[in-house]
Amino acid sequence: MTYQLIREQQINSDIGSVWTFFSSPYNLSVITPEFMNFQVLNNLADEPVYNGMIIDYTVSPMWGIPLRWKTKILGVNFQKSFTDIQLKGPYSLWKHRHEFIPNKNGVLVVDTINYELPFGAIGQLAHRVLVQKRLNEIFAYRYKKVEDLFNHTTDLP
């Protein structure tokens, strides 16, 4: 069964700054919860994502058990969108489209994730009991971190 998770966040910044941040593989660790123990394994130049870029990670989504994850970047449309797909990892399918839509208030960031779990009915049960909740936690954390980084305002006395 294919599941979909969609998240939107308005960022009060210019498209150049937003693109620079989100298109750097190393910034993913900044917006990923610490309990995930997220680490980029390959030695990538600190450059924006590009079509065909391969990124190797370790991540511990459940119970601190480290998993290897390999993604490939596709469909890079400068300052508009890119997609990462899982080549190796815990999902049968993982396709995460990142969209950046400039507007009068800055940039609307839209994440659309289509994913499937292995193991048929057992995977569906795991989704209901564990995976859906964990993904929501991860993206809630991400939302808060992005708010802190881009939308933080200082209250005046």
Provide structural commentary.
- The mean pLDDT is 93.
- The chain is of the alpha+beta class and 157 residues long.
- Helix content is 25%, strand content 38%.
- The chain has helices spanning 15-22, 120-150; strands at residues 2-11, 39-40, 54-59, 67-77, 81-88, 93-103, 106-116.
- The chain has a 7-stranded antiparallel beta sheet, covered by helices on one side.
- The chain is globular.
- The chain has a single domain, classed as 2-Layer Sandwich (Alpha-D-Glucose-1,6-Bisphosphate, Chain A, domain 4), CATH 3.30.530.20.
Secondary-structure map:
Elements: E1 2-11, H1 15-22, E2 39-40, E3 54-59, E4 67-77, E5 81-88, E6 93-103, E7 106-116, H2 120-150
Antiparallel strand pairs: 1-7, 2-3, 3-4, 4-5, 5-6, 6-7
